[in-house]
Design goal:
The complex is a heterodimer of chains A (544) and B (654). Chain A has 544 residues and is an alpha/beta fold. Chain A contains 20 helices and 15 strands. Chain A is globular. The two termini of chain A are 34 Å apart. Chain B has an eight-stranded antiparallel beta sheet. An eight-stranded antiparallel barrel of chain B has the order 24-25-26-27-28-29-30-31. The longest helix of chain B is centred in the C-terminal third of the chain and has 22 residues. Chain B starts with 5 loop residues before the first strand and ends with a strand. Classes of the chains: A alpha/beta (544), B alpha+beta (654). At the A-B interface, helix 1, helix 3, strand 1, helix 11 and helix 20 of A face helix 16 and strand 24 of B.
């Protein structure tokens, strides 16, 4: 396999500017990660410790095999919202007793671990990762239940009501999903660190294994106040739902731990006995590091996403030995396709080198089919402003050919990994296996943007449409008002298109330092290989 | 003259190997005999032929004269060399060897008999005009109070037979006399099959000086100058040197003449050692050892002679071929005995598995060892691991070379006295030759590792464990270990070093270094290289190399300044357990030799509960608290393992 060359010049001024900009964005990212790690803040953490309890992240660290990896999913969920950064949940893929597991924990320091719209989305995403990749599901339960304040954290119930699109009637899917995991023979394990009340009681209720902690875990459908309201009974917490009661009388508790470390020890024992065998193959190729320095990744992408760069420069810093066997380099060159490996896992890579043309769309459809034929996972490196537009291109069938690409992407069954390194706009995002197309994992770089179209194009399109409508009505177009509107639309479109906004809405799995991309893809690939990796033979009708 | 063609060595370990080396150099074939535990030992393998003695204990094997002579017959050996210890000073064995028509490499049975018994040796010395210390032989049931009072306290109880300090007890006051006599008699009986004891005046600040002698069958008798063996623990030599820094040429001549006078009275031939106590310029005859001594290499170093070669040639009937005037002293030699024993626990033997054994090499350094990496120092035989002998132009240089060689040695897997020996060799008192037999009671050389050394040891242990885990991980072995994409707590591990506990955290950084905290203080380190047993680190700006071996939860770490034992505290400490208070556990593996209590008996703190015996040493187990014996886990004669529960004492309510 040939080795990619590089044209990166570290002394180049643009490179240095890009690097400075990227480092600034990474600094912001690091600061937000640090904020998220604080959970409910130092006071809340101190209160936990005072009660002899460990903060959530310490519980998780203690559960992990020493020196193994932990890939946190959507650590910045709920940034720029009325909720705590991180949303009060930690979700991630970690190694317990040699087994890659999906670990999900309620953070008791953040509103007593209560559910909200952000962490519910993160929880559902965690369950999806467990199901799709066949990862044993471990949950650290400690939850006050639903946040009953009903103001979505805004302090203004009326405004919250007007904005709400979800309803209790649609809730509870998580219990369904936990049961489904069990049906799929994916083990589900609950460690109950505190109260797990009402609906929350079904988290352990639906689990294969439950570990309860003496004098600490409480599991009941209704706590003493609700019991009093419902039946008038005066019940004490321990006999209503204490750990000892569940272990000895109700049978809900399978293991009775003496304290938190003991519970984590028992959890590791449970995982150790699962006789876990991954269904996919292990890495099969040489896992040598790239020959080109990943540090250079910081200087490749400009904040101004109109500045082009060769996607091969990124590929050369992700793949084993910087090796890449390019497929059809001369045909449809705006999309680079080819084979490589990452930490020994074979992979097919599709990366944008310009707008998608008919030829590049066709090439990608063929490449995706070839990877499905040989059960090789796909990596999509997004830097795409969209499919090409214009009369010539429409007449040459760009919609038709783009549809072929989307057909192939949608029906492909090998694992897809998406990394948004630059722009990811419009249908280009769909063609590159955007979030809605069900990639196993999606990550975004700090300076990347994702939206239906660029903010300037969006404002410009709106101006043209409105000017045409105004003029059709025979009225004068108010240029001044339009300028204000354009500025506002541009501003908000820009804010919404920022990677941080996307990642905070759990529309990807996390914003990552570009230098970590290779390792994160390896962790993701290894997780994917817990399930079998098999391509499809079936697609929708090809529009010819 | 009868040439020795094939020699059987009735011994094991380092001395057997050492004799084989010389024999092979002289073209003499060799035969080893071995106990079950030594089946695959180095001495068994290095001989041309090896004969199994089929047994485990010394009595069943190396002390069984019949088996050994039979082995010599079967293997066609025409000579037997006894080494030291075991049957080396047993005149009946020497006679049996001769009766079997074999050559005995040693003095005549008559000489051994005459001088092997310390009391009769004293009278021979006296007859030769050599000063002796006042002594009194004890009959079986004699009340020792009177004779002890006459000699004066402190008084020394000694076994009449044998040597090596076994059965030797110092008694400072009349109250301790009966118990010391009982214990000494038992030890002497066990070690030499002879419980005869005598009392002797105890000189507190004396030096132990001994003269090496050599005699042939033609009446030639020379001495090879003196050795000083004052550094002793449990009355056993641990550091020996030649020449003695306290012996002037004039004194040397007097000592040599006295030794030869005593030896010539019994027409001594072969190698032997005449032992003296030296107090100022006065010396007193102690005893004669009719064998090769453990410390003979220091004499070899300064005289250039091979004493085993001399023994073999003398046994063949060859004349010495040189006179006293031909012998000279070159430089200074010091020997240290590296043993599996715990200096912190009164030098109790500490048997164990040798996980790593990698001594250094250097001009001027000789190492005689009976072990190799992977073998076990058991409880059946002597706990000596190796002898280190340094030879240099001056005493200070020899001491420095010996100390450094010991420090450089990688020896891991068991408790040993290496750091203690090195520390002793570096004390001002030793360097100034202020060496008397009570040296170790006056000066307690210990190495006190600094806080920094503790910290570096913890870093080395934690990062080495990490490197080993990463090397054996199955999932994504090429990934940076401990990868995190968000902020998570660092890896954390706690170690105990002695009474101190250290908490260390570490986090890998993008540049390949580690950000660490030790008990909260921040530092950085870079791992330069690791193997299964080593790690090289740059901590701050200094490079350090460490070797590590683990046994159970204990990590034996050898760093630039010597050894440290670390115990990794469990990641998941077991929830509080309820162990009965007042429990007494075995401090070492051994056999219950005496039981002084019964179930239900009331004991006072400090009372003797029982005596454990291991490796021929007695260990007294006393009551840690006053109370009632509620449970007795052992019976007389039981073999117990290290840490076994022995007795539970219900403390008296106060």
């Amino acid at each position: 396999m040939s080795t990619l060359d590089t044209k990166v010049n570290r002394r180049d001024q643009a490179h240095q500017q890009n690097r400075a900009d990227m480092l600034e964005a990474i600094a912001q990212l690091d600061a937000l990660h640090a904020e998220a790690a604080e959970g409910g803040g130092p006071d809340a953490i101190a209160r936990l410790r005072k009660r002899g309890k460990l903060p959530l992240r310490e519980r998780i660290s203690l559960a992990l095999d020493p020196d193994s990896h932990f890939l946190e999913i959507s650590p910045l969920a709920a940034w720029r919202s009325n909720f705590t950064v991180g949303s009060g949940f930690v979700v991630g893929i970690g190694v317990l007793s040699g087994v890659e597991c999906l670990i999900l924990g309620h953070d008791p320091s953040v509103r007593a671990g209560a559910f909200n719209a952000f962490n519910s989305k993160k929880l559902m995403r965690g369950l999806q990762i467990a199901r799709e990749n066949r990862l044993p599901y471990v949950q650290f339960v400690e939850s006050a239940g639903a946040d009953l304040r009903g103001d979505s954290g805004t302090g203004d119930p009326e405004a919250a009501l007007r904005r709400e699109t979800n309803h209790f009637a649609e809730s509870g899917r998580l219990f369904y999903e936990i049961t489904e995991l069990s049906k799929l023979r994916i083990p589900t394990i609950s460690v109950v660190f505190g109260a797990s009340t009402a609906g929350g009681a079904y988290q352990p209720g639906m689990s294969d294994y439950n570990i309860l902690i003496r004098n600490q875990s409480k599991v009941f459908l209704g706590g003493p106040p609700l019991v009093k309201m419902a039946t008038g009974e005066d019940a004490d917490e321990e006999s209503l739902g204490g750990a000892e009661m569940h272990a000895a009388i109700s049978g809900l508790g399978d293991y009775l731990a003496e304290d938190e470390p003991d519970a984590i020890r028992l959890l590791r024992d449970v995982v150790a006995h699962l006789n876990w065998r991954k269904h996919g193959p292990g890495p099969t190729l040489a896992p040598d590091p790239p020959i080109h320095d990943p540090e250079d990744l910081l200087g490749l992408v400009s904040r101004d996403l109109r500045q082009p760069f060769d996607i091969r420069e990124i590929i050369a810093r992700l793949t084993d030995g910087s090796r890449f066997e390019e497929f059809k380099p001369l045909y449809g060159p705006t999309l680079v396709t080819g084979w490589a490996s990452i930490h020994g896992f074979p992979i097919g890579i599709l990366g944008n080198n310009g707008a998608l043309l008919s030829e590049s769309a066709e090439k990608s459809a063929q490449f995706i089919q070839l990877c499905n034929q040989i059960d090789v996972p796909l990596l999509f490196l997004h830097n795409i402003t969209g499919f090409i537009v214009g009369t010539d291109f429409e007449q040459n069938g760009i919609t038709k050919n783009g549809s072929k690409m989307i057909n192939a992407v949608a029906n492909s069954t090998v694992p897809h990994l998406s990394v948004i390194v630059g722009a990811s706009y419009g249908a280009g995002n769909y063609g590159m296996s955007g979030r809605a197309f069900g990639p196993r994992f999606t990550f975004i770089w700090p300076t990347a943007k994702i939206a239906v179209m660029g903010p300037k194009q969006m404002a410009g399109v709106m101006t043209i449409v409105q000017r045409t409508a105004t003029e059709r009505r025979g009225e004068t177009f108010d240029e001044e008002a339009n300028a204000k509107r354009v500025a506002s639309v541009e501003h908000w479109a820009e804010e919404r298109s920022k990677g941080l906004f996307a990642t905070s809405r759990v529309s990807d799995d996390g914003m990552i330092d570009p230098r970590d991309t290779r390792d994160i893809l390896a962790i993701a690939l290894s997780a994917c290989h817990s399930n079998s990796v098999a391509g499809t033979k079936e697609y929708g009708t090809w529009r010819m | 003259m009868t040439a020795i063609t094939r020699v059987l060595v009735a011994n094991r370990g380092e001395i057997a190997r050492r004799i084989f080396r010389t024999a092979h150099r002289m073209g003499i074939a060799t035969v080893a005999v071995y106990a079950d535990g030594d089946t695959n030992g180095p001495h068994t393998r290095e001989a041309d032929t090896a004969i199994a003695l089929n047994g485990e204990t010394a009595t069943q094997t190396y002390l069984d004269a019949t088996k050994i002579i039979d082995a010599a017959r079967r293997s066609d050996a025409n000579a037997i060399h006894p080494g030291y210890g075991f049957l080396s000073e047993n005149p009946d064995f020497a006679q049996a060897v001769l009766n079997a028509g074999l050559i005995w490499v040693g003095p005549s049975p008559a000489s051994i008999r005459a001088i092997g018994d310390k009391l009769s040796a004293k009278s021979i010395a006296r007859a030769a005009g050599v000063p002796t210390l006042e002594a009194h032989a004890l009959t079986e049931h004699e009340d020792a109070t009177q004779p002890a009072a006459r000699i004066g306290y402190p008084v020394l109880i000694k076994a009449s037979a044998g040597g090596g300090g076994r059965g030797m007890r110092v008694v400072t006051a009349p109250a301790g006399l009966p118990q010391a006599i009982e214990s000494a008699r038992r030890a002497a009986q066990a070690a030499f099959g002879n419980g005869t004891l005598f009392l002797e005046r105890y000189l507190q600040h004396a030096r132990h000086i001994e003269i090496q002698i050599l005699g042939d069958h033609h009446g030639n008798l020379v001495h090879l100058f003196e050795r000083e063996c004052s550094i002793q623990r449990r009355h056993q030599k641990i550091i020996e040197e030649a020449p003695s820094p306290a012996v002037t040429p004039d004194l040397r001549a007097r000592l040599g003449a006295a030794a030869l006078a005593a030896a010539s009275r019994i027409e001594y031939h072969s190698a032997g050692t005449v032992e003296f106590l030296l107090a100022g310029n006065d010396f007193f005859f102690l005893e004669v050892n009719t064998r090769l001594q453990v410390e003979h290499p220091v004499t070899e170093a300064i005289t250039g002679l091979d004493l085993v070669r001399e023994q073999l040639r003398i046994a063949e009937g060859a004349p010495l071929g040189y006179t006293q005037a031909d012998l000279t002293i070159t430089g200074h030699a010091i020997e240290a005995r590296l043993c599996a024993e715990d200096p912190a626990k009164d030098f109790l033997p500490a048997p164990g598995h040798i996980a790593v054994w990698h001594p250094p090499e250097s001009p001027g350094l000789r190492i005689d060892s009976g072990i190799e990496q992977g073998c076990t120092i058991g409880t059946n035989f002597d706990p000596m691991i190796a002898k280190f002998i340094a030879h240099a132009p001056t005493r200070r240089e020899a001491a420095a070379l010996l100390a450094r060689s010991l420090e450089q040695t990688r020896l891991q897997g068991l408790t040993h006295n290496r750091d203690f020996l090195a520390a002793t060799l570096r004390t001002q008192a030793f360097l100034e030759a202020d060496t008397t037999t009570d040296f170790l009671t006056r000066i307690a050389p210990t190495r006190t590792p600094s806080e920094t050394e503790h910290h570096h040891a913890c870093i080395a242990a934690a990062l080495h464990a990490r490197a080993r885990r990463r090397a054996t991980t199955k999932l994504l072995p090429t990934l940076q270990g401990g990868f995190r994409n968000s902020v998570m707590p660092p890896e954390s591990v706690r170690y105990r070093i002695g009474p101190a506990t250290h908490r260390i955290t570490y986090r890998p950084r993008r540049d390949g270094t580690f950000a660490l905290t030790i008990n909260g203080a921040e530092t950085t380190a870079r791992v330069e290289a690791t193997t299964d047993t080593t790690i090289t680190l740059t901590i701050g700006r200094q490079r350090h190399a460490f070797t590590l071996a683990t046994s159970g939860p204990t990590i034996h770490l050898h760093g630039p300044h010597g050894d440290l034992d670390l115990t990794e505290l469990p990641r998941f400490p077991p929830p509080a357990t309820t162990e009965a208070t007042g429990g007494v556990r075995a401090p070492m593996p051994g056999r219950v030799l005496a039981l002084h209590i019964t179930q239900g008996q009331h004991v006072t703190r400090g009372d003797l509960l029982l005596i454990l015996e291991a490796m021929k040493m007695e260990h007294r187990i006393t009551a840690p608290t006053s109370g009632t014996v509620t449970t007795l886990h052992v019976a007389l004669g039981d073999q117990v393992h290290n840490g076994a529960a022995l007795v539970i004492i219900e403390p008296t309510e106060s």
